[in-house]
Amino acid sequence: MTTETDLLIVGAGPVGLAVAAEAAARGIAHLVVGKPMGFWTDHMPGGMLLRSGTDWHLDPGGEATIERYRDERGLTEDQINPLSLPFYLGYAEWFRARKGIAPVDAWVERLDAAAWSGGGFVATLVDGDTIAARRVVLALGMGPFAHVPPELAALVPPGRGAHTHDRVDFAPLRGERVLILGGRQSAFEWAALIREAGADHVHLSHRHASPAFAEADWSWVTPIVDRMVDDPGWYRRLPPVERQAVGRRLWAEGRLKVEPWLEDRIRRDGITVWPDTRLVACDTLPDGALAATIGTGTTLTVDRVIFATGYAVDLGRIGLLAKGNLTAGVATQDGYPVLDVRFRTTVPGLFLTSMAAGGSFGPFFGFTVSARASARVIGRALAAPSEAVGGRDRLWSG
């Protein structure tokens, strides 16, 4: 079966929902495909607390905000901060219902340029159904880009290590000894949650000094991202030294600090932090445990290794592009797609946003603060007469 639409939005996370809301406000016929908030429900632990503030809402129109959701439930700012994962998922569901967004809960297996002369795209779902679309927005988030440095992966025996992206059920770790490799927010939060779930001991090893337990200051980020709505080329016009300064400031807030509400949960029996160390060997012992050697000879006996090693954009890891016929047409630089100031790739009609847009628009696009700004910029481009794709009245017949 084939479905036709003017605009296909692939991804039903925060960015995809924001794009859908903007498309609806502009009267653009669209279809959203993806599990609603799937990355958040499937790849984040239930006890997680978010670093984002209530001003990082999803509505390009500024109506269905987190503050409004909070107020309708009779809650105060102190009661909801820091935002919990269940609260944020509740907000996303409320936003989705309020905007009438009904994603098709399916997985796009591949995306191809259409064979007909009018242009457009054909998305093939895992069940074999297809969607014919004039334009496509890829809002895939961080999921495809979970990164484990190859030199670390090679040290850990098969089946004994997992990235934080995949290790969100901590119940099987009860009574076990766990080594987490990484030293940023997710590493520290996973350590606290795993210990609280009943792990016998959690070791946290990272190559740098431990970050400070201090509240991150994001107040300067929202104005910068909102500025991009009217001046989307602002970041790319910055001289390299100024881009680096912006990146360092964001790094200092997001990477050199972990939230202070973690401090008491980390400084407790059963958690040991090993700063300025790295994994150099990991061998299986006769009893099945792992002997993990870090730093200058310290050996830890553990049962599991968790890689809290972040995400790295590489467009080649987006399966629906790799399997389709568009890969050669999408120009890249350092793994990122080359985008114009409207988030358009070098394939006409194909837009790409979220974390993969960071190469052209800056490091803010790894955060939900960018969702509504990118939606407004993309919406303006989609509504422009020059963006219309010519061709047959119907993209598919027969």
From TrEMBL:
Q: Which Pfam families match?
A: Pyr_redox_2 (PF07992)
- Residues in domain FAD/NAD(P)-binding? 6-208
UniProt xrefs under Gene3D superfamilies: FAD/NAD(P)-binding domain
One GO MF term: oxidoreductase activity
Give the top-rank taxon of the lineage listed in the UniProt record for this protein.
Bacteria
Question: What's the protein here called?
Answer: FAD/NAD(P)-binding domain-containing protein
Do you know which InterPro entries this protein is assigned to? FAD/NAD-bd_sf, FAD/NAD-binding_dom
